[in-house]
Amino acid sequence: MDKGGGVKLEIQNLSKRIDGNVVLKHINLSIPMGSIFGIVGRNGSGKTTLFRTIASHYLMDEGMISIDGRDINKEVHLKNDIFFLDPQYQPLNKMRLRTIESYFSLLYPLFDSKRYWELIEKHQLPDDQFQKYSKGMQCLLLVIIVLCSNCSYIILDEPLDGLDVIVRKQVVDLMIDAISDQDRSIILASHNLNELEKLADQVAFIKEHSIVSILNLSTVKMSIRKLQIAFKDYDLPQFIKQEAKHITHEGRVSTVIFENYSDELMKRINNCEPLLIEELPLTLEDLFISKFSGHDMTDERE
Question: Whole-model pTM above 0.85?
Fold first, then answer.
């Protein structure tokens, strides 16, 4: 397959029910080649089901998944270009390194055995059963397998969860190396929002089984602001409460996230003569709070 810049994985109107319950509802995503695409959502929002459906572990109830405009259910060989190793169904526990190589070489014709052994040696992984590895070593080996599959689209479900700093850096370096030549993409779910913020080009927020927002992290901060504000009166002006997406308080000082920040809004705040007004760096965690607050404006006292 030509892996030029125009190639992308597209998910159109995808829905999935399990035991009669809606798990995914009208999902639409477009994932370009050469990117890291983040999926963020609370537990039970449908992230893992989405991954299993993209990888054809589950059949969709409606919708279409295509690569470069070609339906993967009509051209089934295209499914071999999508890799997802489901962490809940681990076939490797009794396997050693040589058996693992043989297993994935049979499943994926383009599996790079030479690179596999080079990375095994580089990271000094012992020739033992997979189940006897530490969590960090298991994660490293899984990411090595994924990268050596030579699939264009790699799906990773919480790959950084519970890893120590050293192993996390090794895994992140492997992921960055995987997309360095722009011929593959990584679709990544993570609860580690600080790490995801550093890695992802775009992030999709999934809530109540639907995509509620897709953000380009390089441009989103132009319209969203996080401010620390304090006034003589402990209470905030009413218009700030109305415009804010999320508010927390620590004594007199309030931290406020605005989703639709404007010069006019800043002028109104300054006209109220705040004792303190300071813009803070906006993180992906702030965006997560903003998107998943129970109401449009959440006011929390600490």
Answer: no
